[in-house]
Design a protein that fits this description.
- The chain has helices at about 1-35, 40-65, 90-95.
- The chain is mainly alpha-helical.
- The protein has a domain at about 1-65.
- Helix 1 crosses helix 2.
- The N and C termini lie far apart (about 60 Å).
């Protein structure tokens, strides 16, 4: 079973590289060609990157929904140094 997951990861790395290269060629390369000076290119590229980020975020919102509770690993508290703190009458009196 572990071997199959390695094959999936091995296929995912080239696919993500190809996707990022294609995104660069489609979105950012036209901006590089239009930029007259390097300073203009940097600000335009930053704006384009944020635009792509917001687009991807919107697609993920459509796919997974707007519920922020779509994960379960944070639904159980993690106790690191002390047991779970309970509010008692004595601790409430200190807050007055």
């Amino acid at each position: 079973m572990a071997v199959q997951s390695h094959y999936r990861i091995a296929g995912l790395v080239p696919a993500s590289f190809a996707g990022n290269w294609l995104l660069y060629q489609i979105v950012l390369m036209p901006l590089v060609k239009r930029a007259e000076i390097r300073v203009c290119w940097k600000s335009t590229a930053s704006s384009a990157r944020f635009g792509v980020l917001f687009f991807i975020q919107g697609v993920m919102l459509v796919i997974f929904g707007g519920s922020l509770q779509s994960y379960s690993y944070l639904s159980v508290p993690v106790h690191i140094l002390a047991p779970r703190w309970h509010s008692t009458a004595s601790s409430r009196s200190c807050l007055r």
